[in-house]
Amino acid sequence: MAKILIMDDEPGLRNVVFNMLRPLGQQLFLAEDGKQAIEIGRREIPDMALLDMRVPDMDGLEVMVELKKINPNVKCIMLSGFGDVETAVNSIKQGAFDYLSKPFKIDEVLKVVNKAMHSVGTSVNQPAVGSNTASAGIKIVGTPNIAGAASATASSVPAAPIKSSQKGIPLPVMISAAVLSAAVIGFAIFKLGFGGSEGKQFSIPYNNATGMSWVKNNLWVCDWVMGNIYQHNNDSKLSIVSVYKTTNLQPTGVAYDGEFLWSCNSSEKRIYKHSIDSSLTVQAIYSLPNVSPAALYFDGANLWLIDSDNAKIYKHKMDQSLSVVGVFDSPAVNPCGMFKKDEFFYIGDYKTGKVYKVSSTDFSVREVFGLPGFKDGKYKLASICWDGNAIWVSADGMGKIFQFSFSDLKVIKF
């Protein structure tokens, strides 16, 4: 197991890199400045270091020199801002292994990290999207602790709530406006336009949008790989308002009940209840030992939970124990999202790309639809929601969100 040091004075970017590397199962150490990075270097002797070129107390090159005194074989990857690329390139001449330009793309980070690990005899190949990745062996240094909630021991529903006793549980959560501006510029968030038969398309700077929900006039989306929840404006570019990091490190679904934001985690088998504040403070955690929640939906009265692995859909009463009042078989093989219109639910299927229209009372299938680009397998349907006028769909691994009208739904015989 390799030891990897991450140094960046910006908490948001530090956590972004951490969450990119976390699924790889290596030991990770976080430092907010040069002094802390060197202290960690002396204590842990890391195999690799990702170093911001500019931190308040010293620059990345100075830190690299000190780390190489401790371990001459340490592989240093320099993290450069827009004005530091030339400096980063020059750093390679002074012994750096490689450099990465901000803002970061997960495939680029993993490619460079994997190359560095190969050079020291350790491979950290990127896990497959959707795999149940482990985080054993990870240490977090130089950042607030994540309050871990013990799993409930009950083996049956209703779920047992685990109250949060610490306000402000999450890691530093809202990336600064400057960082967001850089991300918007660097990732070129822009509307691709009306894609003809494929509806209206938007490009987003992340690839694993597994849950979506409309909160007032904003689209909230979670990315389980990055571990972020994104708040998007309802504008021509679907621009990002805020990026949140919460106690739920791998959010797979989100829903809004008019007061609280709810998220779920399929690997931990939990549902989280958040206040809508600057840190999405956790109010309660519900353990679901027999269910793997992949998505959530609130219909105005009940919280619906989708278990994609077992093709089940659970209806929860909004009480203190989030008790289950109904369990239904999903017509979709791998249900990945749902919404209600009139007296019917519409359920998306990750496996087939189909959308099922079912009765809201007995879940009998009334019609089956295909969406352009999804019914033919061009895109993988990762999540689906409705804003009252249009259908919104995310494509897994594509960094795209689509807006469709109901007329775009094409009936498929079943």
Task: Walk me through the structure.
- With 414 residues, the chain is of the alpha+beta class.
- The protein has two domains: 117 residues, 3-Layer(aba) Sandwich (Rossmann fold), CATH 3.40.50.2300; 253 residues, Neuraminidase.
- Strand 22 and strand 23 form a beta hairpin.
- It is elongated, with a radius of gyration of 22 Å.
- 46% of the residues are buried.
- About 17% of the residues have low confidence.
Tell me the CATH architecture of the largest domain. 6 Propeller
Q: In order across it, which strands form the biggest sheet?
A: 2-1-3-4-5
Number of helices: 6
The N- and C-terminal alpha carbons lie at a distance of 50 Å
Q: Count the domains.
A: 2
CATH classification class of the largest domain: Mainly Beta
Considering the protein shown, what is the CATH homologous superfamily of the largest domain? Answer: TolB, C-terminal domain
